Amino acid sequence: MFRTEPLVKIQLLMLASEAPDAALELARFGVFNPGKMGGQFDIETQAKVELFPDSPARRYREIWLEAEKRLDKLLMQCGDLQPLQIAADAAAPTIADLEALNGWLKEVLVACLACHEGEERIQEERKHLDALEETLAKLEGLNVDLAELLRQDSLLSVHIGSVQASAVKRMTEALSMNDTLMSPFDRVGDWVFAVIAGPRLDQAEVQGVLAQAGWRELPVPAELRTLPQQARVWLAQERQRLGEVSGAECKVMQVLRDEFRPHLHDARVRLALARPLAEAAQVGVHGRGGLAALAGWVPSRQVAELQALLAARFHGRCWLEVRQPDAREATQVPSLVHYPGWLKPFVPLVKSYGVPRYGEFDPALPFALLYLLLFGAMFGDIGHGAVILLLSIFLLKKIGRLAWVGAAAGAVSMLFGVLYGSIFGYEDVLEPVWLSPMHHPEHVLTVAVALGVGFIILTLLASARNKWVSGQTAAALFDATGFAGLLFYLGAVGGLAVEAGLVVEGDLLHADVIGVDLWILSILGMVMVAAYKGFEAQGGLGERILVTLIEVLETAINLFSNTLSFMRVAAFSLNHVALALAVFALAAGLSAAAHGITVVLGNAVIIVLEGGIVAIQALRLMYFEGFSRFFNGDGRLFAPLHLGLATEGGYGKDAGKDAGKDPGKDSGKGS
Amino acid sequence: MSAYLDTRVSLFANQLWQPTDFDALLTTSEVEMQHILQMHGLPQLASYASLDSRSLEQRSIAKVLDETRVLLRPLTDSARDFLLYWTGRFEINNVKTLLRAKMIGESPAELLSKLTPMGYFGRLDNEALAHAEDVMELLRRLEAGPFADIVRPARRAFEQNQDPFNLDASLDRAYYEGLAQRGKNLEPIAGAGFKTLMGYLIDRVNLVWLLRYRFNYKLPPAQVYYLLATSHYSLTSARLRELARLESLEDVLAALPKPWRARFEATSHRETASETTSETTRKTTNEYSAGCADEASSIPGVFAIMERVTSQYARSVLSSRAPAISRAFAYLVLRERDLRAVRTVLRGRHLGLPSDDIWLALKRTSHAVM
Question: Are A357 and A334 in contact (CB under 8 A)?
């Protein structure tokens, strides 16, 4: 829980024809994260990469992607929502199988799209008929003998139709170049209905412009030319015709759906079985001739299990090499962390800052505890905490796991309410079990600063540990965020505490055990930091001295300002009391009903406004005063190969027990 | 914010190329070339030998987009809208690539490698579009996206006449109409310099299209006119209608407004300039001058001349006290021009072409020394 799981890099060499099945087995294994072969820290394997210049899975992935996209579109059409049932011994499709499946999906999709396109056109025709019906009156009111106008043998060529409004001006100008007139007579929505008339001689040029503009000729039926009153009958007939065509299209679509629906589930299964190799190919599957190789990361405690699995499946037709990750490639190794269920709701809050680097101290547990502690300390009230708790549970379905964070915060808030003796802002109803911020503000301030000191010490320890583990020994010992910084901080804080009369020196340190004055300890720490910074700085002597002085000053200011930042914990706990007092002051002197309403509304405002602020402030303290000191957060998620089934986990899509498991099957694999 | 943008533009302007820089790029060693590219903010092009022309182009565009993103930071409202739309040209090119690929049945994987990565400015889901089954599905998806206004007329034109030319021409026209409109909205803030620069740009686009559609594709005048972008600059709609009716390139050039006519005529008589040009440049410049008289007799030549005029004006805007957005736009115009020329030089060197040939190619991309 406090650190990422130790991983090893594996390299699997196999027959190219068995690569899909090998990838499938790795996906079923559940904790294999594909990675690049070789790398700058693995010279031996990097040399081998050059021996495998081919990319045997590239085409496999391309076909799989195409097939997946087509399947997605088909599923949108007819939604096969039944859960995937994948047999334990199902084999991954070969590239020939995939191509055949892709071809079938293409045929079906093209047929569906043709129906769909037809349906789109019918909808457009319907909209056009609607618009036409509206203009019919205007058409009748043109007071023109349409029959005469639309004669085919006249010298004048006349078109009646519609075009998008945005094209009208341009069309008018273009047509004027051919002595052709365009005269709009109606507009419905985005469509403009117009009459175009010009010499019949230049019709080829006019047609070019009309085509370019997307002109829709209005099919003026014979009835309309001689008997306009019949136009509405014609429109009704057109609607009926479109309805029949649409009905026919729908039937064709339904037949298609009935025909391919039974095969869709099979297609889904086969593509799920092909997914592992397709995803591994994205990272890199190398090959030469009949051999293929891929690499990746697995938990070191599961290597033996993987070896046994591969031996059972391939009977010696594959070769597995294992190596430990180099300390220098920590940023490239994925991070796999397992969390208990109760801690998982807090993980997104940590992840929003970053993913822990491989080997780094994972802050999720201390984050959860400290965040709740800070929230409770700043928002201690039994009533307000209860409201937050109940509200979070009520909103569980809407906001998911985050609701548990709210519920926990509410519970801790209630606990601190008991400690403070505060319920819905009333400070005099209950006796505080510990102390009341209103009555003992100086104590609260002292406790807040002490909390800050403890917090900073923890972060310095975590930082030193992270540096040590990643091989930065000198930084772990002598840097401002390492042991030397801790020494300085402890000495300075202890010295200040003694100066302030909070602690008697002999109480803090037994002189016979360590025998140094606290301030000397602090100076020693600072000297170590200065020496380290001076050594690390580049440039001439003067520049180094200047940089060292600035770094030392910054270290001191940083540590103490971060410590004093925790005074806000006290400030907000006092603020909570002050807001309640303000509400009661407003409510005083009002009638009983008004008093009640004011108190209720006032409490609601406190819960929403101050609750929100406190939640953010607690997060800020964790991120800025905490994480920024030791947490790089530049790790990579552990993303194992999977079959596309729903899973849960810590860092990584499928980290954890359920990764890659077939539904209803207990394979015993995964951690 | 204007001061910030002005400062940023001035800093970026130091990266622009001078004729002597191209001299050096043509003749220097590989090691020194990397230093020159670094100095002009182009270290990513240093490995040009291993890059094909498409990758080279994509890296150049990525550079322009990065710099545009920086210049975009302090902008709001119409200025921001304009610059965002200006970068949309590259995405419209992606749309054209997608459409062409669908027409010839190219595989999605090949198609995706041809698209220019748009990064921060990308508004299209290229992955989903590349997997469209056919042109009509692609057009419908595009019409449901951010470029609906540009794609809709193109789809309608394509439905009438399944001609890929109609698609390309409609997309281009719709795009530049939008650009001209946004430029017009910005003029009150950006000033006269911006308006003139936009005018050169739109006039160049309209004139070159007119010449190509009329004399290469042999389209009738009305259709040619329809395919041009609406303009309120020196080549107005009325003027374009007159030009479209003419029967030859020479007649069209002769009927241009006086300022443009004068520029085309002046090109033929231009003498070498600048004492700072090198011997190579002088030699090529003499050849260039001799060839100038012929330049205006071809459509690429007209394009080159008009682009040169635009670039010269952009330089003057950049070095003036024009509003910051105007200078920023001028910088971007010049930067793209420089990058095109750099690509020409790098490709020429990679192919082992003689310097003179590369200079001639530069001339055709209008980045001559004058």
Answer: no
